[in-house]
Design brief:
Strand content: 5-15%
Mean pLDDT: 92
Helix content: 40-55%
Oligomer: single chain
Distance between the termini: 39 Å
Largest sheet: 7 strands, mixed
Number of helices: 15
Low-confidence stretches: none
Structural class: alpha/beta
Length: 365
Amino acid sequence: MALPLLYPAKIDRYWIIEKLVRGARQTYREVGIKQTDLAQRADVPQSTISNLENLAKTFEDPRRCPNREELLKVLTWGLELQQEHLDTLLWLYDGQPLTEQEIRPYVRGYIPKAVPKNYCFTELRRLVLEHLKEMLISSTRSDRIKILPVRIIPFGEEAMELETYEELLQLEQIPGQSLVIMGRPSCLVHSKERHASGELCRFPVTTPEGRQRWLEINQRRVECFFDNLTNYGERSIHSKPVLRNYLTGKHLSDTEREQRREQIQHWITLLESYKHYQVGLVETPCFCFELKLKGTVQAMVRSPFEEEEKYFRIWQGPRYFLLFDENTVFQFFLTFEGFWDTIPEEDRAKERVIEFLRGVVEGKT
């Protein structure tokens, strides 16, 4: 029986493969090996090594994507990886660890007793994350103080708010599964009708021109959100205490409370409609930061706060931190995955999550 895949879309798995292959080459026999020398050892063109280390780029041009046999040659004849590493990389590639037919020509020369292994999804997932941690430790071991490429988006007036939405859109347009940590539900889970009404446009966007620009950006964000759910899925982690209080705040008007109730009801509809949309629930009352991660290539981090008009009027300083450094983004990726694994299965099971959210709507949680 075929094993489940770590991610439903190839591109998410390709980003991980290219990171692991590049790391294995750079740490080969502790000193590393050049692409040209590795290609010679593996009996493949140097372009095959380059394509493996930039595998996500082949998503748009499949002709450049190395096939399984070429991947095997690089991992075995070239890098002589141990079997667990081979099995996890091949599983990431197409869902199938080493077979008996592959072990004979590629592996037995340096692992004489190798035999096919039976894995479960959980074990392979654990091994992938362990190998990523090892690669990150190796690649950052020589770093002391490092200046990272970071973009800071501060609180501001209308123009700054619109720029923030532009940055969010650019992040969300990156191919791949979104990974999110936040207390509240995302504003994107409102119904399309609510988004189109313009009711969600808030202070400091107040001018007619600003509101029109906001509507244009927001419409593109909503379209991108639904495309991402269809093509890649999303996983998000939310706070049970925050959600329990989401409809009960004393500062809420009846209109705002009803709007939030409809938002959670539509969130339930989305969870029921999209197979790869998953939510994990935790009892943490407040996160030390909120995170949006896309495609293991870019992350956006912010401190959690109430996005109400009164806070916008008084809050100064940074609002979002956009991170582009590969190792830093992968560290946040591993943070998310580690957090996800600590969540009990019953708090990740879709039917239980939906049951909890219905309880929030009905005031029964």
